[in-house]
Write a structure and sequence with these properties.
Layout (H helix, E strand, L loop, with lengths): L1 E11 L5 E11 L3 E5 L6 H8 L7 E6 L13 E4 L12 H11 L4 H14 L15 H13 L5 E5 L7 H16 L3 E6 L2 H7 L2 E5 L5 E6 H5 L2 H6 L6 H6 L9 H10 L1
Parallel strand pairs: 3-7, 3-8, 5-6, 6-7
Antiparallel strand pairs: 1-2, 1-4, 8-9
Helix pairs in contact: 2-3, 2-4
Length: 263
């Protein structure tokens, strides 16, 4: 089944600036796909179009081979934008996490179960009673992610999901994404960070600085093409630069360590 099928997306900002022109994105159920490109390439706009947060000037987005109405699949679709305030607007973090499943008419016990499970996984237990505006930037990012996850979506769209998150919590968040993928959740991540891509995606849609789709391919194909990444104003991952020209190039430090241990 196709989780997401976008065709011919076109969008202009209110001032008339063309942001997205003729973008096609297809994501199969259970896939992990990255929208990779430099800042200003229109990736966040594409993600908002895919999530039904804004309407395209032209083109369509179809969900789960069923409908082009994003609101009809809100129980199965969750979008994490760059701005935590889009999710954190209640007096406490707990109430923010309860908001989504409560809109799904879940029982009180089911809502509480979801909140506690996600809060525990993202180490938010001590923050549940706090006002969101009292949290640090990284804590707000984790709380916003938790709010997106309490609806238990089948399709999760993420815009720079570990921005401002410290190293320890970043590792926990990435481990959680791996668990979600293993459970069959479809993940689409927008990012300018080539170091992140190998951890969140098996396939990449690459944008250049003009917002045009420059290439599509497996994560390994895209990340090891250093010339292509440079042409798109992106810096190849450090480990790729280190091993470039030395045969089978690892994509992460962990993979490089395994290769060296094997040798």
């Amino acid at each position: 089944m196709t989780a997401l099928d976008a065709t011919g997306l076109r969008y202009s900002y209110p001032d008339g600036t063309l942001a997205v022109d003729g973008v096609d994105v297809t994501v199969e159920t259970g896939e992990r796909v990255a929208l990779l490109g430099p800042n200003g390439a229109g990736k966040s706009t594409v993600l908002q179009l895919l999530g039904g947060l804004i309407d395209p000037d032209a083109g369509t987005v179809r969900y789960f081979d069923e409908t082009t109405d994003a609101d009809a699949v809100r129980d199965r679709l969750s979008v994490l934008t760059q701005n935590p305030a889009d999710y954190l607007f209640n007096p406490t973090v707990r109430e923010d996490l309860r908001y989504g499943p409560a809109q799904q008419d879940r029982s009180e016990s089911e809502v509480d179960r979801r909140v506690e499970r996600v809060a525990d996984r993202l180490d938010l237990g001590e923050l549940l009673s706090k006002p969101p505006f009292r949290l640090s930037g990284g804590q707000q990012r984790r709380a916003a992610l938790a709010s997106a996850l309490t609806v238990e979506p089948d399709l999760l769209l993420l815009d720079e999901p570990v921005s401002n998150v410290d190293a320890a919590n970043r590792a926990e968040v990435l481990a959680l994404f791996s668990e979600l993928a293993a459970d069959g959740v479809t993940l689409v991540t927008s990012t300018p960070d080539t170091e992140l891509v190998a951890h969140v995606a098996d396939r990449v849609v690459l944008f250049d600085e003009t917002g045009t789709v420059a290439a599509r391919g497996s994560t390994r194909e895209i990340l090891t093409d250093t010339e292509l990444l440079t042409d798109c104003d992106l810096r190849p991952p450090q480990v790729v630069r280190l091993f470039d020209g030395r045969g089978d190039i690892p994509l992460t430090v962990a993979e490089a360590r395994r290769r060296l241990d094997e040798r």
